[in-house]
Amino acid sequence: MSDQYGFDKLAFAKLICNFTGVNASKLDSFIEDNSIAMVFEHPTAIGITQQQLKKFEQLKELSSLYNNLKDQKVVYCMKSSTSAGEYFKNFFCGVKDKEKFVCAFLDTANNIMATEVMSTGTVNEAPVYPREIVKKALMYDANSIMISHNHPGESLNPSSADIELTRRISQALSAVGIKLLDHIIVAGDRYNSFMEKGILPEQGKDFNKPYINPNDIAQEEDEDMEI
Prior knowledge:
Elements: H1 4-20, H2 24-33, H3 36-41, H4 50-71, H5 81-91, E1 100-106, E2 112-120, E3 127-128, H6 130-139, E4 144-150, H7 160-174, E5 179-187, E6 190-193, H8 194-197, E7 225-226
Parallel strand pairs: 4-5
Antiparallel strand pairs: 1-2, 1-4, 3-7, 5-6
Helix pairs in contact: 1-2, 4-5, 6-7
């Protein structure tokens, strides 16, 4: 190889091997038949040990943290669906082998106090418990929350289960006076916002409008759902 891309590809493989301990010839062979993206998105396809897989997970986490930290100063402030979309897109960077459902818990200024993975599932579903989300929101004394999950299949379209789950979470949060500001679906380097699409339950549509706790809320039986 005499081009810069080729040199960079070799340097990339060498750094990966140095950090993870993956056999160099095994990785070189994998890269010959697959894209560089596959190394991070599906590392198990290389044929690695559990310890090496943990190293890959650490690299993904490092990339995610760097991408979010470089774009924000002091705190993560969710000023809009755009900033929320970018935040969660970075959060899910490199996660292609399983679906995760996460919640960001916000204060009165829409600063993120904490972000937690609430559920991890298979490649196309993750069980979610609305009551657990409410418990966490109360524990953090959150004024509002944002929820997000990734679609490993890279479809940005919300499923009927996504929409129904969002409605139930919004209703559960309303019962304790907490706003749901948005639901972000992440697919690769793209995202879809329920608020921007106008399909977020009315209770959480406006970032700036003062929250009015609705009366006579019917509390549904809290069952787990798979998205």
